[in-house]
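Design review, sub-item: ligand-bound model
Attendees: FS, YL, KQ
YL presented the inputs for the zinc ion complex:
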Amino acid sequence: MFGYINAIVLLNRPLGEIDRRYLVFSDRLGKISLISKRGSLHYNSNSGILNALNLVKILISREGYSKSYYIQDAELFSGYPNIKSEPKKFAAAYYFLYILDKVFQEQNPNVKVFSLIRDYFQVLEKEKDIDYFLFKDMFLWHVSMGLGFMPELKVCSNCSKDLSEKNRFFSIQTGGLICKNCTSLEINYKKISPGSVNFIKEILKSKLSKILSLRYTSLARRELDVLSERYLSYHSEKNLVLFRNFLSGYEIKE
Ligand SMILES: [Zn+2]
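KQ shared the predicted structure:
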């Protein structure tokens, strides 16, 4: 016997002709595959408890020295009805699950990121006016931080010199801001305004409820566009689909 885990269901699909496999992101075990045996209580999933996107509590077990975990019982915490009925909310939620699936190995627990996805889903479920592009940026910076890829925003990430307020450049490869001198070293970089830097700082230090009410300029929105995806993509060494391309797969315009 192993015990209970809290989890968000990433996907479920048949496993051969007999069993059903679920991929979930859980608090205690991180991303993990679970098997539901034919004939077990939740195999038919008619109850909808283990549908993708659901927040659930699952009783799991492992038999002997087997590496596989089996579902013994499941209880629904939230099915997020508003997310599922609003196409943009749904696409954003699926993008977040896609990111977690891409950047996490199986059985690599990260309780912080589990609370993060739960908090973001809660906001998606409740809030009406969401700027989905900024919301996605917030999530990606938080995931980067949760994985330990905190951007350097105080001193030059290449030579550690203090930075002037005027000339600020962001380099994904060196992991944060760089000074004017270091831009001559053929490092890929882009100019970034103090407003954008402050916005990223706020995202990284504040609670989600506070960040949602932050004001930002159209310049910041432009400068930050795709930076969060590229930053996480580079540091996690995973090719990530850009949010805007992901949306077009759902036939949703910006
Ligand atoms: Zn420098």
